[in-house]
Write a structure and sequence with these properties.
83 residues, mainly alpha, globular
């Protein structure tokens, strides 16, 4: 993930790549998808990645996606407050 793209753009790209992989009949379980997503994030998300990896027994892709989107919204709101 490049620092200059949004989480939403990255998630769209990630979902497109997963869809393409699935078209060749490769099965990827949800936890593996979650790990792939977490490992694809830029360094600025290291704190989130670390907290997600060490706070859950089972990684759930939808929850990770929600966490990332919530964090993005929080960043935007903080930027608006400071402008």
């Amino acid at each position: 993930m490049n620092e200059w793209i949004t989480v939403l753009e990255h998630l769209n790209f990630f979902n497109k790549m997963i869809s393409e992989i699935l078209t060749v009949y490769v099965k990827i379980n949800e936890e593996d998808k979650a790990l792939i997503l977490l490992s694809s994030l830029s360094q600025s998300y290291d704190l989130i990645v670390t907290s997600v990896l060490y706070s859950k027994e089972t990684l759930i892709l939808d929850k990770i996606t929600s966490t990332l989107l919530f964090n993005e919204i929080r960043k935007i709101l903080n930027q608006e407050e400071h402008t």
